[in-house]
Amino acid sequence: MSYNKPLPKLDPLTTPFWEHARRNILALQTCRACNDAHLPPSPVCPKCLSTDQDWKPASGRGVLEAYAEFHRAYWPGFNDDIPYSSAIVRLEEGPLMATNLVGDTTNARVGKAVEVIFDIVSPELALPKFRLASDD
Amino acid sequence: MRSVSIIGTGMMRFMKRDTVNMVDFAWPIVKAAIVEAGVDPKSIGAAYCGSAASGSMPGQRVLKRLGLTGIPISNVEGACSSSAIALRHASLAVATGECDVALAFGVDQLNLSGKTLVHGTEDWDFAYGLAMPGLYAMRAQRYMYEYGVTIEQLTKIAVKSKKYGALNPWAHFQQEVTAEQVMNARMVADPFTVLHCCPRSDGASAVVVCASDIAHRYSSKPVKIVSSVQRSGKMMTGFRDMTMPESTQRAARILYEQSGLGPEDIDVCEVHDAFTVNELLYSDALGFSKPGEAVKLLEDGDFDIGGRIPLNITGGLVSRGHPIGPTGIAQVVEMTHQLQGRAGKRQVEGAKLAMTHVTGGGVAGLDHGAVTIHILGV
Description:
The structure holds 2 protein chains of 2 kinds. Chain A is mostly beta strands. Chain A is built from 1 helix and 8 strands; from the N terminus they run αββββββββ. A 5-stranded antiparallel β-sheet of chain A has the order 6-5-4-7-8. In chain A, strands 2-1-3 form a 3-stranded antiparallel β-sheet, with helices on one face. The relative contact order of chain A is 0.19. Chain B has 2 domains: 133 residues, Thiolase/Chalcone synthase (Peroxisomal Thiolase, Chain A, domain 1), CATH 3.40.47.10; 226 residues, 3-Layer(aba) Sandwich (Peroxisomal Thiolase, Chain A, domain 1), CATH 3.40.47.10.
């Protein structure tokens, strides 16, 4: 079955994020001037307005800032996934990331450690998702 | 800057109205506000229309039905804050002397235009199936985690909302419910069953404002716009506290500074309760409670009529409905009637100062796209 969920649109600003993701690397745009790591990416550093920006691999680890089970699909592609787990992950580097929690979520609680995995949805795109950390 | 007062209101029951053209249900509401104000339509110097999902120039499309054309008509889009921003701009047009009388209204027909608010495609949340109910469900989960709030307590907010909605002829949902009914309703996004969420509504709302020094010519009970603040959420690409809506907190601080008033002065308040947990989030952010303590006010009956700060005693968005564009002015119409002593079974006796609070939208990285707060007074 072909993938029928909404896909992020790639543009010059976000393409580096998705190119890293395709290589199974969670990368964050990081300012060379002030070292601020941010998500979503921005044409200038939202802290110091510098245009000198880099992409750096993140640890891929974080904690569940919030977590909720979705029981309704707002896009038809999610009909078969109900209930599915949405999450806000607080990355080790600081930024919050909206994502899905996958795998066994029985023990999912706010504050639990999570780690990134990559869901390959097309030859070009892998969506970073998270699962409960194995060592937690 | 001149003082500005509300002299006319127009409001309708919010509900599913997908069989008529939006223009046809909106123009009588605008007319009602003008008739109530008793102004010559020709004296209206500017009009502002707040709408989030009605395409190009809804203001012109509605006002041509009334022949109210030729004047500057500005269409304002600020998601759920749209018509509150429209009112703010109408007030500013009067305050600066651009005109003496101005019109602000809101209109949307969500049941025709789409299921829920859809934002820019540059945000990634869609790829993860994230819509508004889920984002607020996560805020609720975080708030419950931080402050030990229970699902039973959140349920009390839904029961309260429906209790007041049942007293409001304008409410989309006019039936009382029990805690059991709330808990057993269809689950949308844990912890929200459908009775924790605002219904998708269609409707229109309108007010006429004028310079306060001529308001008594038109209205025996004009309501003054004591203070008005509009802000946008700050872009925060790092960490942010999900339990404290920063844009509301920041706007409230400015509002209190500019008015010389404090949260203890407000007699009745409407906050943007698209979901039940918002009453707690915004009570904390507006200073009615310390962070995490709003649930005490709820439990003590302080959010009820007769309590310390009656909150959403119109049923709020959860019961009155949320057509997006008209929501901000609907709150203002309800609070104007409170201050005029014409709120019927929902009346808070002796209310002198009322607050309306409405946020707008979700843009990735921002707390909210927009926030608009008004203090009204008599």
